[in-house]
TrEMBL record:
Keywords: Exonuclease, Hydrolase, Nuclease, RNA-binding
Keyword Nuclease: yes
Family annotation (SUPFAM superfamilies): Metallo-hydrolase/oxidoreductase (SSF56281)
Protein name: MBL fold metallo-hydrolase
SMART domains xrefs: Lactamase_B (SM00849)
GO molecular function: exonuclease activity; RNA binding
Segments passing through the bilayer: none
Source organism of this protein record: Enterococcus faecalis (Streptococcus faecalis)
Gene3D superfamilies attached to this UniProt entry: Metallo-hydrolase/oxidoreductase, Ribonuclease Z/Hydroxyacylglutathione hydrolase-like
Domain Metallo-beta-lactamase, residue spans: 19-237
Amino acid sequence: MESKAKTTVTFHSGILTIGGTVIEVAYKDAHIFFDFGKEFRPELDLPDDHIETLINNRLVPELKDLYDPRLGYEYHGTEDKEYQHTAVFLSHAHLDHSRMINYLDPAVPLYTLKETKMILNSLNRKGDFLIPSPFEEKNFTREMIGLNKNDVIKVGEISVEIVPVDHDAYGASALLIRTPDHFITYTGDLRLHGHNREETLAFCEKAKHTELLMMEGVSISFPEREPDPAQIAVVSEEDLVQHLVRLELENPNRQITFNGYPANVERFAKIIEKSPRTVVLEANMAALLLEVFGIEVRYYYAESGKIPELNPALEIPYDTLLKDKTDYLWQVVNQFDNLQEGSLYIHSDAQPLGDFDPQYRVFLDLLAKKDITFVRLACSGHAIPEDLDKIIALIEPQVLVPIHTLKPEKLENPYGERILPERGEQIVL
């Protein structure tokens, strides 16, 4: 008698760390992977991004028959099974989920929401967002299959529904994965306090009573951190924009600049809509807003090279912005030493992201030397601890697997079992 086929879930990476999630679900002759980024460890100061360097430093996992064979990578793991059907899914555009896609075997299909495809292609316009393929032009971005919300893809006998969720990367999604015997859910990154809260709630309804819920827990990673009294408390994306407008109104005769994370195009769009000053974006960001939302906005070039899609009549000379104190709120992305002394800079989840990045202190010191006031206006893309509990309560999973967190033990499942896997561990359902 033939033994019954089993569904397996393997946690290749993304355990006891924030980012770099690579999880595999396999059934019979098919398997899928999600996501395809790398861990963020700038303190390692690695000499290069070669595949061997990344694997040796545990920033990406050993994977059989998944990396581009032209890279010359030799698999040294224990997997010996051959598969007929393979696919990779991206939940969203953040680098810890997407940065490795140019190292993916070109023969393996890569699926994501069409909004994420658009964002990644635009952000990698100059070839400096993703790790570049050594076999292609510098600005190459590998082929992605853009899906509509709630599309279902079949990979062998595995079906994957891609469901939109609220996150600070436009086009973020969760995955509902079904094999003939099991129903598995991957949250990707999500929250309830952004512009698209209803999408996360609708996802929870679709995922209700899932057998296995793999759920991010970024916000429970730092319970020992006390709130910074010098930082403006922001409770939602809408609240953030209101604070930014207030800062503009309180500083009528002062140069005001800002920066944000480019994948959060909805925040930029809201700032343009609500700002009492004329918003001027760096040209690449302006091109992204035009492509995603069809929004035309005034822009400037921070470096040489023109973007033909942009309307020349909307260009503002860089020198005009440097002299301005009253008319413009403009996005600054480099050459911060050119800003006016005593000006105001608003840091809204831009690079460098925080004190875990060695460049953050360097950046703050640079601003301090010019007496530039630094205001951090941050709104996390990750559900706060209370909302993590609410999401679990809405889904009522049979088994909870906390991932994408430094403190998985702090996420509890009142509705069933909880598993805390180790890196490389496989669960057989």
